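User: Sorry, folds how?
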Amino acid sequence: MALGVNEAERTYIAQVLSNASLFAGVSGDDLRELTRCARLASFQRTRPLAPPRGKSAEVYVICSGVVAALTAGDGGADAMLTMLYGPDDTVGLGASPRDGGAFMALVDTSVVALPRSEFNRVRRRSPELCDAVYASLTREIDLVSTKLGELLSRSLEARLAGFYARIADLVASNHWEPRVQIGRITQTQTAHLLGVTREHVNRTLMMWERSGLVFQAKGGDLIIENRKRLAILADERAATRHAAEGDRLWEIDSYLDKGLNQMAYNLAIEAARRSPKDKRFPHRAVLATARSGALEEALALIDAYKLADDYSDEEIACLRPRLLRDIAFSYPGDALEENLLGKAAQEFSKVFDNTGGFYAGLNAAATYAMLGEEQTAADLAHKAERLALDCLNEIDVDEPSYWVRATVAECRLIAGDLAAASADFANACRASDVTPGKKATTRKQLRRLARSLPIDSAWIDEAAPQKGVLFYAGPLAPTDKSGSEIFDAMRRAVRSYVKTNRIGNAFGALASGTDIVIAEELLDAGIALNIYLPLPPTEFVENSIARSGADWEKRFIACVDRAQTFAWNRRAAPSHAAFQLGAVAAMGKALRYAEDIDARAHGFFAYQQGRTAEQSVSKANECLWRARGHESMSFEAQWPASADAARSSEQEKTVFACIFDRSMSAHERAAIFGAGDVTIVEDSDITAGLFAEPARAVDAATRGGASPSFAGARCWLDAGAFTPGGREWAGAFIAATCRPATPSPSIYASEVFALSCATLGEDRFRFEYAGFIPGQEKLEPCPLYLMV
């Protein structure tokens, strides 16, 4: 017989209370008594949790949603946030909030409501419930004390990141899912809760949206795009440490130090808009742009932000001559623009004269050394060395000292004392603040000095060693008894390879079987894991993890938790072509990062014995990797059946698209896309040519950009899996779907297109990260690269 409504509610309430941690040790009789007096209630977002009019106070057990505890400030100030509660939490155990405070639903929330008088009556006779309440209140007091400390010491960015990260944790269905829609929490409401101005919240969210951390949907809902990156910003230890030092730039600098220049650029450029008078933000934006190779763009940023000839800050003053020197060395082959190099040397000297800082002195000395003016370089080096040594004498051994020690080493190198320089570089590499990004700057400087000083690549590798970057790939291979020995052998091979080649960072996916086993070995070896999935996470788990069993899913989540970064192809559906494209994009990430930090690129490829490149994604990856001359190791074995099984029909294939946001005549299509193997498709006002090779897509974009008849038209390059004759072709391409608002005639490429081109090893394919560009209809954020 079906349960009646009231009886069904009682059954549900009993289930909620019995599953709640607060009531874990309570007797069955006490739970039944609480169930009889309880009721179900729901509260819309922004509504206070309160009993019906005329009823006594209540205790609430949260079933779903997020509840904020608010406390009114002195003098009638707006109520501020003191705690956040989520499912399984119990609200209102202690005294009610002070007058003016409340418990408020941040999102639509459902609860089990217990009359406080009945709850207290049962609590008095139940030692188990009494102990549980005391323990819960103690935890709340500790959390409130911690939050008070954060308010006093942490930057707005760190506090806001912690606020949204906590809500995402409470709302998410699982703890690893990176993308979470947390609902409509207005900026005004957030500002009141955190005790800051709405403008601060607005500018910070703009910065994060540009960086791909969050997305403010058209309807007002806030979507956390990447919880892992947000958690890094919210990390209490890092935030507190940097805030204590008075450094408000720690979020940006942390990315620069790790060589993650794309992330640093986005944060810096939006921070510059937020604080236009603080020149440190545009300085970081220029620095990130230059480190990623876009030198002319970085020089233009200096002019845009009026940073030239500003001697109030030595680092900012050195930006322009530093870029001039970089441009002088940017010509192909061994060509060197000595006029630009001479101008850079003069400007560095001018900065040194005006600031008296050892950083400018060292760069002036180094630039004159690159020009072959040995005596001038040596004289400047001696002056800069004395200044650096004076600074070093004031620094304790365990304090940050990399740049000072590296300056002393480089000055002695320029002055001709190679033995002392080598020892000083070794000391710098042992400094407490050494990072891959800092060593990359040193190594690139030393490579330029090697043109005129008696050092070579081997000397540089010994003086300032940089750990390598690994790309790994393997087949989908669920383990069983017959395959355990193969996995053990592969583990030993991975362990030996990364140890022999001193790997520091690794890039790859996390499919069940080989990928996860490789990733576990890398993490256990202390290597920073950077995950890139060929599909959005939920679809990837369904297609490449869940079918192999719950144990693989647990191992996948454990690897995600320990990884440094977590990203994925934002516009892909399950198919063999999508897996191929995702693997190539991950390879491109590894190669770009290796170039950024001046490190060697290595590969580890596992694949099914006897498979060809056409049959195996891993084998195809190995062929592409070795064709570019990179070092690698192969592990070929006979895994259990179903390894690297086909995932789609042979009709679907990877294509590279040149997309224009306008319709075309037949004559225009022929002129832009050319003849030969090209598929031309149209959708609304969009026309695209789909090619098998990215080079042809780039050529078509270039022709369109140069055509007077296409003035004002936007052009995007993209890549995706396409089925000939398919009606929904645009859905495979994020550019065609989002129609990003990019300026004409510049040509922009999707992330997956730019990363794919990074594997080709050709100078003509230069793409610099431009950030998350808003779409025409604000449908979703669109990460793009500018073709330069």
Remarks:
- The longest helix spans residues 127-153.
- DSSP finds 32 helices and 23 strands in the chain.
- Confidence is low (pLDDT under 50) at residues 1-5, 236-248, 643-649.
- The longest strand covers residues 601-608.
